[in-house]
Amino acid sequence: MKNTKFNLAVILLILGFVLIALDWDVKTGFAYPEEYANSKDVIGEFQYYNIASNYGATCTYKFIDTSTKENSNANDVPGEHPSSSAVYQQTKVIDKVFFDNIHIDIFNDLPGFLFIAVACLILGTGIRRFRLAALSAICGMVLFILLKALPFAVNGLLLCNISMVIGIAYLGINTLTIYLCVNALLHMCPDVCCRDERKWCRIVWFMIFVLQILVTFILWLGSDFSMLFHVGIFFEGVLVAFIIIFWLILKRVFYYIENTYFDALKKKSKNLR
């Protein structure tokens, strides 16, 4: 029974790691209760990137005149009007932003954080470090629900600003949760014979950390650039590949991790007697 609980916790951790790394939005047939309230206080690009990356959005474009004048005669007489030539140029910018229908992430972060929280609570009965990871995962669930519920409570520039702040905090919780889990797992295999595995797991974790931030930034900008969006999807695939590599390396020391967990449970049961 104890082995079953330990194996279940490991499986839930692996699933949680993958789920919070993947994003695949599907548009539903349900619309938000109100149209997006465009603001003239900030540029359309800022509004579109935030709304599109978090909730799904469409937009319209306009052209603005960016003409400049350049002096073309070096022999102009001081005090007289210089001869000049105008360089006419127009720049395409986002005009208005509109909510798309509600999007649902197939690889939803909410069950991902739930799996991690349950796994950490199971492992936390023996290893206290997992309790902090469980708390971090629960915070991730709260931030996820809050982020997705915002369009039903606020709108316009306020929605952009709040969603951006929560989104940054959410990214921080995402990376912190994985770090705490990795730290606790490596703490469970302290033997000298596990030295190489610990080293490579730390290297792979650092690559996961960098890719998480990179993918988030690229997909944020890629809301309006199709090629950049596909680059973000590519790096997301690389991120999942590194997560798989991490667990394959860690598999080599599962024997030590498992023994540490059960030894901790035995010590705890003896102390309770």
How many helix segments?
Answer: 8
Low-confidence stretches: none
- Extended strand count: 6
- Largest sheet geometry: 2 strands, antiparallel
Given the C-alpha coordinates, what overall shape results? elongated
Helix share bin: 55-70%
* CA radius of gyration: 26 Å
Q: Write the H/E string, N to C.
A: HEHEEEEEHHHHHH
Strand order of the largest sheet: 1-6
Give the CA-CA distance, first to last residue.
21 Å
Q: Mean of residue pLDDT?
A: 87
Structural class: alpha+beta
The percentage of residues in β strands lies in: 5-15%
Overview of the molecule:
It is a single chain. Helices cover 63% and strands 12% of the residues. By secondary structure, the chain is an alpha+beta fold. The strands form three sheets. It has a two-stranded antiparallel ribbon. The longest helix is centred in the middle third of the chain and has 32 residues, at 156-187. It is elongated and about 80 Å long. The two termini are 21 Å apart.
How is this fold's topology laid out?
Layout: H1 2-21, E1 25-27, H2 44-54, E2 57-65, E3 68-71, E4 84-87, E5 90-99, E6 103-105, H3 109-123, H4 129-149, H5 156-187, H6 195-221, H7 226-251, H8 254-272
Antiparallel strand pairs: 1-6, 2-5, 3-4
